[in-house]
């Protein structure tokens, strides 16, 4: 009813204005859909790629029944989760319990608003503070896991949520210092400026130690092996999502894989030149980073929680902080600081 009166009011003002408004609105919606639909398909088929790689590493067949060699398995999994019954625990806080997975999935998509992927088409929003926007969204994602753990009214879920909070906060600090190295070199928080800066040399070469720490921090932030302690099934059954089922569980699942793809894009832009040498080469680098995410899961055992905290606070934080000072000092000595 509110939308009806809104459009009636606009129509009463000016027919030309109404046409322009509808045209801009439809154009924006189509632009978002043209970006989000391929992203959602990529998230779905990343699950198939991961299962195929893990099966190959472990000497198994993997999904091979639904479609040609199992290529339609993600569609079957999505349909199954969509039509399964949604179970709400009787003692849970139902509003927050339902809101947590929606919020998690929304944040995983919100990251892509400033992701630059081509020099001609740019991004959905070419924000000058794009790096800060990404940092802000990734910091907010911890709240969805805490809400899921607390609202479930389960000890296992609550412990998983607290673990996720401590883990993400610990590695956010190091990741922020690592990104600061890139910003000091480039002199801009705009992702497109960072890409253009790497026309002649990728930042992965002068900042290689920071790239390694950034990748490990990305593993910890996305709760991937060997840092998947918030979901440690041997200790917490399933962690913060133990009480979730059906589409609510699928939203957490999609958010995790969406973050994997995003961190692959983001690390490629920060350290490997992004699309500066062509969009196809950009995709090759992104696929390689995604493969490394999956390979690490197959190759490394899970860390203990005390080891996870020690790596974050006693190793990564001092190194990343020292490298910020080192980078700024070198640029200052050679009079190459980009800031006026």
Detailed description of the structure:
The chain folds into two domains: 49-83, no CATH class; 94-333, no CATH class. The longest helix has 43 residues, at 15-57. The chain is built from twelve helices and no strands. Helices cover 70% and strands 0% of the residues. It starts with a helix and ends in a 7-residue tail after the last helix. By secondary structure, the protein is mainly alpha-helical.
SSE layout and pairing:
Elements: H1 2-13, H2 15-57, H3 73-83, H4 94-110, H5 130-151, H6 155-186, H7 191-197, H8 208-221, H9 233-236, H10 246-271, H11 279-299, H12 305-333
Helix pairs in contact: 2-3, 2-10, 2-11, 3-10, 4-5, 4-10, 5-6, 6-8, 6-12, 8-10, 10-11
Amino-to-carboxy terminus distance: 54 Å
Structural shape: globular
Largest sheet: none
Helix share bin: over 70%
> What's the rounded overall pLDDT mean?
83
Count of distinct strands:
0
pLDDT under 50 segments (min length 5)?
A: none
Secondary-structure element sequence? HHHHHHHHHHHH
Number of domains: 2
Q: Which structural category fits the helices and strands? A: mainly alpha
Q: What's this entry about, in short?
A:
With 340 residues, the chain is mainly α. Helix content is 70%, strand content 0%.
Provide keyphrases for this structure.
mainly alpha, 340 residues
């Amino acid at each position: 009813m509110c939308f009806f009166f809104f459009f009636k009011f606009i129509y009463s003002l000016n027919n030309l204005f109404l046409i322009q408004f509808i045209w801009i609105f439809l154009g924006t919606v189509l632009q978002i859909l043209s970006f989000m639909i391929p992203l959602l398909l990529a998230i779905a088929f990343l699950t198939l790629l991961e299962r195929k790689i893990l099966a190959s590493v472990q000497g198994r067949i993997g999904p091979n029944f639904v479609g040609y060699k199992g290529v339609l398995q993600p569609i079957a999994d999505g349909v199954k989760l969509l039509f399964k019954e949604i179970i709400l625990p009787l003692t849970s806080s139902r509003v927050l319990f339902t809101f947590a997975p929606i919020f998690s999935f929304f944040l995983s998509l919100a990251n892509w608003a400033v992701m630059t992927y081509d020099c001609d088409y740019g991004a959905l929003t070419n924000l000058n503070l794009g790096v800060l926007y990404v940092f802000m969204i990734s910091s907010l994602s911890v709240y969805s896991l805490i809400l899921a753990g607390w609202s479930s009214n389960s000890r296992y879920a609550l412990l998983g949520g607290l673990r996720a909070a401590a883990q993400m906060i610990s590695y956010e600090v190091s990741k922020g210092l690592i990104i600061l190295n890139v910003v000091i070199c480039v002199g801009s928080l705009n992702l497109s400026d960072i890409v253009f800066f790497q026309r002649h040399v990728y930042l992965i070469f002068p900042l290689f130690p920071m790239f390694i720490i950034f990748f490990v921090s990305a593993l910890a932030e996305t709760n991937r092996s060997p840092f998947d302690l918030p979901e440690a099934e041997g200790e917490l059954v399933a962690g913060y999502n133990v009480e979730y089922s059906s589409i609510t569980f699928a939203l957490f699942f999609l958010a995790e894989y969406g973050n994997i793809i995003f961190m692959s894009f983001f690390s490629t832009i920060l350290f490997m030149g992004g699309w500066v040498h062509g969009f196809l080469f950009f995709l090759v680098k992104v696929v390689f980073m995604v493969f490394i995410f999956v390979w690490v899961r197959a190759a490394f055992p899970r860390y203990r929680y005390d080891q996870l905290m020690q790596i974050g606070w006693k190793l990564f934080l001092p190194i990343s902080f020292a490298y910020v000072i080192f980078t700024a000092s070198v640029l200052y000595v050679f009079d190459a600081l980009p800031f006026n």
